[in-house]
């Protein structure tokens, strides 16, 4: 919640035009940006590529590394962490987002195995009233896709 307080502090400055505040990111930064938009509705626009979210714990996120530690230690970590996962899970707070969203699935970065379904399910969870667009950019790197979305948003 400290990140939300930081964003609120910036937006509350008298010299900041809150309508022009935007969030953008790739992968984990995109997940954080979506989270910020859910809890600070004055962020007007979000541009995100391949946002990660915690329900990927079984396959894509870094949590499996944390959970693969020594037997008893990993079990204690799982027991303490699992009850909190729904609070931070992108799919659970996506319905709270009210700003304009540009969401992309890129595919050229071969080091990142990412599920198409996770991006599509996130897109479907955004409210129908939200100005939202989904882009599929299989021949672009994450950064190329982000740049493309930002150019599209400038039109």
How many angstroms does the end-to-end distance come to? Answer: 33 Å
Strand order of the largest sheet: 1-2-3-4
Poorly predicted residue ranges: 54-62
Percent range of helical residues: 40-55%
| Total number of strands | 4
How many H/I helical runs? 8
SS-based class: alpha/beta
Overall residue-averaged pLDDT value: 80
Radius of gyration based on Cα positions: 17 Å
**H/E element sequence:** HEHEHHHHEHEH
Write the layout of secondary structure elements.
Layout: H1 2-11, E1 22-26, H2 28-39, E2 45-49, H3 63-67, H4 71-81, H5 85-88, H6 90-93, E3 100-106, H7 116-125, E4 132-137, H8 142-154
Parallel strand pairs: 1-2, 2-3, 3-4
Task: Label this structure with key terms.
single chain; 155 residues; alpha/beta; 4-stranded parallel β-sheet; 8 helices; 45% helix; 15% strand; globular
What does the model show?
The protein is α/β, with parallel strands linked by helices. 45% of the residues lie in helices and 15% in strands. The protein has helices spanning 2-11, 28-39, 63-67, 71-81, 85-88, 90-93, 116-125, 142-154, and strands at 22-26, 45-49, 100-106, 132-137. Strands 1-2-3-4 form a four-stranded parallel sheet, with helices on both faces. α7 (116-125) links the parallel β3 (100-106) and β4 (132-137). The N and C termini lie far apart (33 Å). The model is unreliable at 54-62 (pLDDT under 50).
């Amino acid at each position: 919640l400290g990140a939300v307080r930081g964003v609120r502090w910036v937006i509350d400055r008298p010299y900041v035009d809150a309508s022009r505040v935007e969030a953008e990111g790739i992968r984990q930064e995109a997940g954080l940006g979506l989270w910020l938009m859910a809890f600070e509705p004055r962020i007007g626009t979000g541009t995100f590529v391949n946002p990660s979210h915690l329900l990927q714990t079984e396959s894509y996120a870094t949590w499996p590394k944390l959970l693969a530690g020594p037997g008893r230690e990993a079990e204690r970590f799982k027991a303490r962490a699992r009850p909190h996962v729904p609070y931070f899970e992108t799919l659970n707070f996506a319905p709270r987002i009210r700003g304009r969203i540009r969401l992309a699935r890129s595919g050229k970065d071969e080091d990142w195995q990412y599920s198409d379904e996770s991006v599509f399910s996130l897109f479907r969870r955004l409210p129908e009233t939200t100005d939202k667009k989904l882009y599929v950019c299989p021949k672009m790197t994450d950064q190329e896709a982000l740049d493309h979305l930002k150019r599209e948003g400038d039109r």
